[in-house]
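Summary of Year 1 activities. Much of the first year was spent building the evaluation harness for sequence design. The harness presents a backbone, in tokenized form, and records the residue chosen at every position. We chose the following record to illustrate the format because it has been used consistently in internal testing since the harness was completed.
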């Protein structure tokens, strides 16, 4: 198998966009946590505390998503450097590792999205239960 220097470079734009999306998720969740913390300080509601716990898990997952995304980018650049130095075999393995890091990042992203959807469904079920009671 031959690897050309352009091949690892293909991951740059995709990885950059993914990292931007991950950062936006992080910022949104951080903002929600700040609001919920303020609400919890005023009311000390158990449901708010559970929401904060859920969001804390999602923050941890986003951190790992970002770490593996950055690792993907790092390994791609390192593979390009090795190709530049005519180290074909090592660059192929590093590029393979960068693809693996990207897959792990995307897998964790899928997990985080699933948690988010479950939390939203829980909110919607609470709303439907309140409508049925009235």
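For this record, the design step produced the sequence shown next.
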């Amino acid at each position: 198998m031959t690897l050309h220097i352009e091949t690892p470079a293909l991951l740059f734009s995709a990885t950059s966009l993914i990292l931007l999306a991950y950062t936006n998720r992080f910022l949104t969740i951080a903002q929600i946590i700040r609001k919920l913390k303020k609400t919890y300080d005023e009311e000390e509601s158990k449901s708010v505390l559970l929401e904060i716990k859920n969001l804390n898990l999602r923050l941890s997952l986003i951190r790992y998503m970002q770490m593996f995304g950055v690792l993907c980018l790092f390994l791609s650049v390192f593979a390009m450097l090795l190709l530049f130095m005519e180290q074909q075999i090592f660059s192929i393995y590093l590029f393979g590792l960068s693809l693996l890091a990207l897959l792990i990042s995307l897998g964790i992203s899928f997990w985080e999205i699933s948690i988010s959807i479950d939390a939203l469904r829980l909110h919607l079920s609470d709303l439907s239960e309140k409508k049925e009671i009235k």
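DSSP finds three helices and no strands in the chain. Quantitative recovery figures across the full test set are reported in Table 2.
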